[in-house]
Write a structure and sequence with these properties.
Elements (H helix, E strand, L loop, with lengths): L4 E2 L2 E9 L4 E7 L4 E9 L4 H19 L9 E7 L2 E7 L3 E3 H6 L6 H20 L12 E4 L4 E3 L4 H4 L9 E4 L6 H4 L6 H17 L11 H10 L5 H4 L6 H9 L11 H9 L32 E3 L10 H6 L5 H16 L5 E6 L17 H4 L29 E8 L2 E5 L2 E6 L4 E4 L2 E9 L2 E10 L4 E7 L2
Parallel strand pairs: 13-19
Antiparallel strand pairs: 1-2, 2-3, 3-4, 4-6, 5-6, 7-8, 8-9, 10-11, 12-19, 13-16, 14-15, 14-17, 17-18
Helix pairs in contact: 3-6, 3-10, 6-9
């Protein structure tokens, strides 16, 4: 059904469609100003509608206070029937997404200039407590005069007013930060990661994430686990200073990134004088962490419910594995696939009887010096020290107090033990547990969860193999 008016605004034409609604070109008849109208479709109960409207208006007011030359101006918000809308500055220019898709190659100086303007705008917004949450090429406009504007400030948070109908707006998978993918709280450093991904794509012509089949699950897994090849490795003509900037912006842990967008903007403005050239830890020399062809799954803003958020390993687990390159994950997955394909059943548990604990001597593996024994060595005799005696003449037995539970999961799954998440497998291969019964649940967003109970004895080793089909 064609819409002729939204509130007092007269619709002139449709500009495009997104995940949340339609974008229109309209005119404000009171002052004759041309505006862009962004809409969000609502299908909510009366209570949910009131809750959403309160949140929407509150966030819109916050975004409306962002008076910055590189941020689109918001004029008004309103609701017509089941459509919430926002009237904002109408921009004439090209989306960065369009420039990238055209194959136009921007010079490093121009790339730095564009991204620095975005970083300046983000720094201003973050200073005012506003996080964008969906920085991507489609939300960055390059105007005819060469200046840059960020659009859709606060849209992601505004649209999350209903927990049941609207869901959780996470952003665009190819540009989401790891904490967004993991469903964790975000701050301005999440926008910095997303801007780093945009910078990477502008420099190389390839997205940082989205290799392989380019599905939503694959992209999110890569965001959590893989480090793309450094820009200079993909394109040797790129100044190596950009390797450092991208590496800092796209660090997996927020604490390792630029702590403010202003820092990133300063480095971009002075990239020719940067001496730090620490590159990304390349996924492989051939750049397997990148991809030339990406499906639309990675570009559009996605709306996910909580049970659709993919598995994420705990930060501590990933810190321990920071030295591993992404190729190791693929090798491990291949080995697991070969192994699991030999299993006749889809799921199996390998039981190994407890290994008889080895007898070890008590702490006196290093015998005490003669002085400690109180005995004298006769003159002319070699200085030989007898090992210390264990009470009753019996050796000390090292009694195991834990058991080992291994996992071989394809393609991947988040491991829950007794209701607590222990991260994703792969890369997790083994977890140490206390003896006794444990409830195991393995989740993958694309398949029904696998559940089973295992009973472990002290010193025992078991492996759960599961292939989602």
């Amino acid at each position: 059904m064609e819409i002729e008016k939204l509130g007092r605004y007269e619709i002139l034409s449709e500009l495009g469609q997104g995940a949340m609604g339609v974008v229109y070109k309209a005119v404000d008849p009171l002052i004759g100003r041309t505006v862009a109208i962004k809409t969000i479709n609502l299908n909510l109960s009366r209570d949910e509608l009131a809750d959403f409207e309160e949140r929407f208006n509150r966030e819109a007011k916050s975004a409306g206070r962002l008076n910055h030359p590189n941020i689109v101006t918001i004029y008004d918000v309103g609701r017509a029937d089941h459509i919430a809308f926002m009237a904002m500055e109408y921009l004439e220019g090209r989306e960065l997404k369009e420039i990238i898709a055209s194959g136009e190659v921007l010079q490093p100086d121009r790339v730095a200039e564009i991204v620095a303007q975005v970083a300046d705008a983000l720094a201003f917004a973050h200073d005012h407590g506003i996080v964008h949450r969906d920085i991507k090429p489609a939300n960055i406009m390059v105007l005819r005069n060469g200046s840059v504007k960020i659009t859709d400030f606060g849209i992601a948070k505004m649209a999350s007013g209903s927990r049941t109908q609207i869901g959780i707006i996470l952003g665009s998978p190819k540009y989401m930060s790891p904490e967004q993918v993991a469903g964790k709280p975000v701050d301005g450093r999440s926008d910095i990661f997303s801007l780093g991904a945009v910078l990477y794509e502008l420099l190389t012509g390839k997205p940082a994430f989205g290799g392989g089949d380019g599905t939503l699950t694959t992209i999110m897994y890569q965001v959590l686990n893989e480090i793309p090849a450094s820009p200079a490795n993909v394109n040797p003509t790129i100044p190596v200073a950009f390797d450092y900037i991208v590496s800092r912006a796209m660090a997996k842990a927020p604490g390792n990134r630029y702590q403010s967008a202003r820092e990133m903007a300063n480095d971009l403005k002075n990239f020719k004088n940067l001496t730090a050239t620490v590159p990304l830890n390349s996924a492989s020399s051939s750049g397997k962490g990148t991809a030339a062809s990406i499906g639309s799954d990675g570009d559009a803003t996605v709306i996910l419910n909580a049970n659709q958020i993919p598995a994420a390993s705990s930060w501590s687990s990933w810190k321990k594995r920071a030295g591993f390159i992404a190729a190791a994950i693929f090798v491990a997955a291949t080995v697991l696939f070969i192994t699991s394909s030999r299993e006749s059943a889809m799921t199996a548990v390998d039981n190994k009887k407890p290994v008889t604990p080895q007898t070890t001597l008590a702490t006196a593996v290093k015998p005490p010096p003669p002085e400690a024994t109180g005995s004298k060595v006769p003159d002319g005799q070699p200085n030989i020290t007898a090992p210390a005696k264990v009470p009753d003449g019996q050796p000390s037995i090292a009694v195991p107090t834990q058991a080992s539970l291994g996992f071989a999961v394809l393609p991947w799954g988040e491991i829950f033990i007794d209701g607590k998440s222990h991260g994703a497998s792969p890369p997790i291969r083994e977890i140490r547990l206390s003896p006794g019964k444990h409830q195991i649940e393995i989740k993958n967003t694309d398949f029904p969860p696998h559940r089973q109970t295992v009973e472990l004895e002290a010193g025992a080793s078991k492996t759960i193999r599961h292939k989602f089909k």
